[in-house]
Amino acid sequence: MIEILAVDDDEGILRVMEKALSKEGYAVTAVSEPLQIEQMDLNRYQLILLDVMMPGMDGFTLVEKIRERVDCPILFVTAKTEEEDVMRGLGLGGDDYITKPFGIGELRARVAAHLRREGRQKKNLVSVGEAQFYLLAKELRYRGEALNLTKSEYRICEYLALNRGQVFSKEQIYEYVFGFDGESDSSAITEHVKNIRGKCKKVGFEPIETVWGIGYRWNKEEA
Asked: What angle do CA 2, 145, 126 make, to 5 degrees?
């Protein structure tokens, strides 16, 4: 089910958005306190509706704080529609504006349009089961906890996870991680996998499965 986060200090507007979008089959999380957002797992949402004028933290400040954490569309729902405000919001990472007061039909149509276009490749984060790959930072987290992987260990995990379902030989993995000109050999992959498993076991994570006689694959139980 598609999950949508709606943030607005006006409880009445939140109820309208929640009711309208729930009828379309979306699961809507309504939040009236913007300061709560920084503590939430935002990667579960496929779209965020964000008011601009809110006490404590306005929508512009909030989108600055969260945009690097999420790839999903962020739509401002606001009465501030002067060109300068629109340009600022889009420049900070917003995708569109819905002007207050809005019609239910317009809200549903805008949301549906952005979700249809959301086939773009994720550049920042990819979630695989309960594991999160921060592609730009080259960081792997499990249930929100960062794993202290080396660069090579991270690349092995990323390669297997993004191609889950496939089995790769040690030679294939070595070529991906180190290239044709690597100074070691494929036996190094065995040691890297051992180290990955040791680090992941500490948090109850078993990401790599051995396929005897062939190589390794991402554990389907973790996908």
From this structure: 40
Overall domain count for the chain: 2
Domain of 44?
3-117
CA angle, residues 134, 75, 126, in degrees to nearest 5 = 15
Are 111 and 165 members of one domain?
A: no
pLDDT of the residue at 138: 87
Measured CA angle at 164 (ends 112, 217), to 5 deg? 170
- Asked if residues 49 and 2 have their Cβ atoms less than 8 Å apart, the reply is no
Which residue, 64, 99, 117, sits at the end of a domain? 117
> For residue 196, what pLDDT is reported?
95
Please state, as a whole number, how many other Cβ atoms lie within 10 Å of the Cβ of residue 208: 20
- The two structure tokens encoding residue 156: 């092995």
Token output for 54: 């809110």
Distance CA 170, CA 223 (A): 21
Q: 138, 152, 154, 148: which is closest to 201 by C-alpha?
A: 148
Phi, psi of 23, rounded to the nearest 5 degrees: -65, -20
- Indicate the residue among 100, 117, 134 that finishes a domain: 117
Per the structure block, which two tokens stand in for 197?
């498993």
Closest residue by Cα to residue 142 from 68, 203, 66: 203
Do 113 and 135 lie in one domain? The reply is no
Any idea which of 32-46, 57-71, 116-130, 131-145 has the lowest mean pLDDT?
116-130
With a threshold of 0.70, does the pTM exceed it? no
